[in-house]
Structure formats: C-alpha cells, structure tokens
Amino acid sequence: MGLLDILLGRSRAVGPDLDRLFALPSAAVGLEAAAGFRPTGQGAVCFATVEGAAFERTHREIRALLDADAGRTPVDLTHDSYGYSWLVSHRSPGELPLLVNDLHAVNSTLEAGGFGPRLLCSLAGFAQDDGRRLALVYLYKRGTFYPFAPLPGERRQRDNALELRIRAALADELPVEGDLGRWFPVWGAPGL
Questions:
Q1: Single pTM value for the model
Q2: Is residue 165 classed exposed, middle or buried when 0-12, 13-18 and 19+ CB atoms within 10 A define those classes?
C-alpha cells in the first residue's frame, strides 16, 4: 500500500486464503451450541462456468485426487439456473473435516489450473433437527465467510435475523464478511 492509498483511506482487499476453510470444523461446534445447526456432510465450490479441454483435464484431476474412498462419488459437477457451475462433495455429517479437505482441494486444483479468477465461493451445509437449512459461505476473492439462511417454502426469502445472530456467534471463530451487501443469496445451491 502506498502513501496515496493511506492518505485517501483506501485499503487493500484481503484476498483469498484457502487455509481459512480449515476453521470450519471448530466453528461448527460454536454453530451447534449457538443455534442447533449441525453439518449435513454436503459442501460445494461455485465458479463461473468453464468449458474446454483445460477444464476437463482439471476436473479429471479433482476426481482422481478425491477418489480415495472406494465406492464414493467424491465430486459431482452441476450447473445452476444462473449460469454458474458447482462442484459438490458428499460426505457423512460427521466428516466435516474431510469435507473441508475436499473443498480446499477443489479450490486449490482449480486455482492451480488457472481458474482462480473464475472461483466465486465455497459453502458447507448445516441443518437443524426440524430441517431448517443454513450455509456458511466462503467468498473466495474476499477471504471471508457469511451465513446464508433461506426460509423454508417456495418463496425465496432469507432469515436475516438468524443470519445476524450466526454472524455474532461466529465472530471469534471465522473471519466474517463485514459488508452485508456482499452476503449474496445462493438460492438453490447444491450442498445446501
């Protein structure tokens, strides 16, 4: 940062730090204590859709990397109605650390393959006993997390009060995104 940036009050963006994903398992303990949400075993990495041989090669690398568990489909590739692609990992609910490893590996492999600028976010899914869903979303370009809590039903509404309560509960566990305008809804996200 230069002198002009300091004088004008500008600061550098934090940027991606994929190792922050490893804070999710400890944050999950606080999330369960504060609001009764437990991991679902579902997680996903979202990126702007890519086509071509380079992406196919990277996708094969990801599948080979995560195919250590025989009989398990480690990563599914899906596309949403907004034109984004999702690589979705499925684990059992008690395997959150392994799910986080999967998300980190997918992000790292896409980054190494030259697709870092296309990465948008990663999420880990959580649920209460009554079926309420919540995602902790990691913004790749910001290096921060935010909660996304869709209300049940067909209408696309979020539980803003719950999201703010989760933000307060996890403030000491995760780097939470301070700009609420960046808490984008991830409607219909796989893994949620």
A1: 0.88
A2: middle
pLDDT in the model for residue 124: 97
Q: How many domains does the chain have?
A: 1
CB 140 within 8 A of CB 127: no
Q: Assess if residue 190 is contained within a domain.
A: no
| Own/partner pairs, 53-56, CB within 8 angstroms, 24+ separation | 54/113, 54/114, 55/113, 55/115
**39 domain-assigned:** yes
Structure token digits, residue 114: 């030259």
Q: Which helix (H) or strand (E) holds 102?
A: helix 96-110
Parent domain of 30: 14-182
Mean pLDDT, consecutive 10-residue segments, the chain of 192 residues? 58 71 96 96 93 87 74 77 91 94 93 92 96 96 96 91 96 95 93 82
* 3-class secondary-structure state, position 45: strand
Evaluate whether residue 24 is within a structural domain: yes
